[in-house]
What we know:
The protein is α+β, with helices and mostly antiparallel strands and 81 residues long. The protein is built from 1 helix and 3 strands; from the N terminus they run E-E-E-H.
Amino acid sequence: MQTFFFITHSNSEFVFDFVNVMPATPKSKVKARLIIAPQHAKRLMRILTENIAKYESVNGTIKDLEEIQLPLNFGVPTAQA
Length: 81
């Protein structure tokens, strides 16, 4: 199982979708959705940045994972010409 999150936004809200992708299943499921105002999204970014800095000061730099290729079809067969 892989876990991803996607962020979309409009002029009035940010939407965070947390998704579980199960191998060999035709469809992924959104397990949680968070919808917040842009002002709260900015606060969340600031708080997360501060907490990551605190974490890294104690535990060392967090290494980025290799870029993961998302399955753009999410298990649905790709169309062929």
